[in-house]
Amino acid sequence: MIEIPARRGKAVRLSKGQRIKVINTKGQQVVDTWAFNAEDLHEFMSMEHSRVAIDRIIPGVGDALVTNRRRPILTLVEDTSGGIHDTLFAACDRWRYELLGCKEHHDNCTDNLAAGLAALGLAPPETPAPLNLFMNIPVVDGNRVEVRPPVSTPGSYVTLRAEMNSILAFSACPQDMLPVNGLAMRPTEAHFEILD
Amino acid sequence: MIEIPARRGKAVRLSKGQRIKVINTKGQQVVDTWAFNAEDLHEFMSMEHSRVAIDRIIPGVGDALVTNRRRPILTLVEDTSGGIHDTLFAACDRWRYELLGCKEHHDNCTDNLAAGLAALGLAPPETPAPLNLFMNIPVVDGNRVEVRPPVSTPGSYVTLRAEMNSILAFSACPQDMLPVNGLAMRPTEAHFEILD
After folding, report:
1. What ipTM was reported for this prediction?
2. SS (HEC) of chain A
3. What integer is the mean pLDDT of A11-37?
4. Is B46 strand, coil or helix?
5. Are the C-beta atoms of B91 and B113 separated by less than 8 Å?
6. What pLDDT was estimated at residue A196?
7. B162 φ, ψ (degrees, to nearest 5)
8. How much of chain B is helix, strand and coil, in % rounded to 5?
9. What's chain B's average pLDDT?
10. Is the separation of the CB atoms in A166 and A160 below 8 Å?
11. B144 touches chain A (CB under 8 A)
């Protein structure tokens, strides 16, 4: 069991066919998730291509997320979290927190992606839109988006299967100025476990 | 009045404050639209950042689309097309048409972006998710996305105002295997006009 520390990022290699269980340890913690082709980081999981592939804005069990070359990279094989995730919102970044009124440095998912990959000696070629696991951004009346607290409970999880040799990166989202990570606005750690 | 030829791309420079009228000449023609900061192409209009900024998946009159650094780049100032546009779907590309069964080269919006910029001596640093003007991709029941014919009529248009010196790129989407550009599936030309 590997920790994604609160407000931090963590990346890991996954071989084709391996599964990874992403656990919402405390509940209500959003985990931004990226996947890159291990042989070519310019190919990566893409939310805008995945929505076309799955005909949905929220992936469900059995759905394969695809890359920017439209090839399956991760399949959602299990979900005990309530099935609410987000594919619409960008990862938070320094500019997001500046606009929210932050005067000093604020941890953010974009920097966490870079730090997670740097620990493996890698750098992301860009910051793709993430799969925001457990994030609750409903589309209301077919157009309006709302930021709501996650519905996931402590210990609930999602299992993803790698469809190619991949680099996965996670960020335990440090958003503490909006109820992205629950009404208490207290970011917590999460965990993952690799299953062969 | 400048033509975006059927199935082709066209790029243009726009100074801060200038407006551009994008005209659906024949009606029902989707126009994939990108905007880059003219001083730094790595800053560009981002759908995933714009949805956060405008709290909507479809921009309306008065909404400012923002860049991947969360700065306004284009404001939608006028819309006679019925107000239906798409921010969810990736630009079509060679892989999309291969998956649809195409055995030979098929024109596509991703190549059209590159060709449009190349005509200005530029290259896109990546292929951002486009603002798909006039494209009709409703979110049904809060999750499912459907491909429907556009509701725009011949001669209807959208006017966008540049909030920084920008490079705009357009592609008259060559999709002729799905009703993206109307039930007849016959891609047509579109036009734009720069207004000072």
Report:
1. 0.98
2. CEEECCCCEEEEEECCCCEEEEEECCCCCCEEEEEEECCEEEEEECHHHHHHHHCECCCCCCCEEEECCCCEEEEEEEECCCCCCECCCCCCCHHHHHHCCCCCCCCCHHHHHHHHHHCCCCCCCCCCCCEEECCECCEECCCEECCECCCCCCCEEEEEEECCCEEEEEEECCCCCCHHHCCCCCCCCEEEEEEC
3. 98
4. coil
5. yes
6. 87
7. -75, 130
8. 15, 35, 50
9. 98
10. no
11. yes
| Cβ proximity of B182 and B176 under 8 Å | no
Q: Is B47 helix (H, G, I), strand (E, B) or coil?
A: helix
In angstroms, the separation between the Cα of residue A1 and the nearest Cα of chain B is 32
Residue A69 structure tokens = 């070359």
Q: With an 8 Å Cβ cutoff, is B67 touching chain A?
A: no
Residue B191: CB atoms within 10 A of its CB come to 20
- CB-CB neighbors (< 8 A) of B139 in chain A: 57, 139, 142-143
Amino acid at B135: M
